[in-house]
Amino acid sequence: MTTLTTTPLAPLLDRLFEEAAAATSPAVAELSAEERSRLIRSKTEYLDFYGRLKDLWLPVSRETGMLLYMLARGSGARTIVEFGTSFGISTLHLAAALRDNGGGRLITSEFEPSKVARARSNLTAGGLIDMVEIREGDALQTLSVDLPETVDLLLLDGAKALYPEILSLVESRLRPGAFVVADNADLCPEYLERVRSTGSGYMSTPFGEDVELSMRLG
Ligand SMILES: C[S@@+](CC[C@H](N)C(=O)[O-])C[C@H]1O[C@@H](n2cnc3c(N)ncnc32)[C@H](O)[C@@H]1O
Q1: Which residue of 69, 110, 153, 155 has the smallest Cβ count within 10 Å?
Q2: Is 149 in a helix, a strand, or coil?
Q3: CB under 8 Å to 216, separation ≥6 — which residues?
Q4: Which 8-state DSSP code applies to residue 215?
Q5: Which domains are present in the chain?
């Protein structure tokens, strides 16, 4: 039995994934494909872009959610940092793994206040809020202070162009063997070049359709 696959979390996640799939946003429909493609890669306009997307959940896939649970659970993770909370779907998977590992601390970051409120409510409904600290604000600031001495797993799922900067904030805390999961990292070639390059301190491979999975070397 796992927290992920039993009540209350399993039926909650079924409902949340359904709600996520049904959500729409007129503000996004107004953007041309070119504008969207430019904004999603921007290092300066991400607050405006994700502000427009505030009604969209943009969750990890069900497969990636399962992968996150298994990586965190299998590695015995106790400390996790997440960039990009949204409504908390990935956070629920990671917090479930911490619960099944005997407890821990998950620091997650989201700048959109309405999303923070919804994530808090979903984590409460899943019975997992006690392990999660949601830092509200731009992660470039909120993740630059007061991180745990060691971090076992880092999930990158906020503004794609900031993946290298967020990795730099957390890197010195990653323990040897720590996993870094970057969703849709193909949108940030600079990040892929960094984690894949020889001597980078990572072993890294694309995994499934949308994940770059990296492991910190000693
Ligand atoms: C792809 S969604 C995250 C989905 C979430 N991980 C899940 O699986 O449910 C990206 C989120 O990151 C947030 N975000 C983007 N850039 C951010 C930043 N610099 N600081 C904090 N949050 C950010 C956006 O507001 C958005 O809610």
Answers
A1: 69
A2: coil
A3: 171, 174, 175, 176, 177, 178, 179, 180, 201, 202
A4: E
A5: 3-15+58-216 (3.40.50.150)
Neighbouring C-beta atoms of residue 210, cutoff 10 Å? 16
Q: At what angle do helices 89-100 and 9-22 cross, to 10 degrees?
A: 160
pLDDT tens digits, one per residue of 40-76: 999 999 999 999 999 999 999 999 999 999 999 999 9
Q: Return phi, psi of residue 177, to 5°.
A: 90, -5
**Cross-strand partners of 81:** 107, 154
Q: 8: CA distance to ligand 1 center in Å?
A: 25
- Chain segment 74-133, per-residue pLDDT in tens: 999 999 999 999 999 999 999 999 999 999 999 999 999 999 999 999 999 999 999 999
Residue 134 Cβ inside 6 Å of ligand 1? The answer reads no
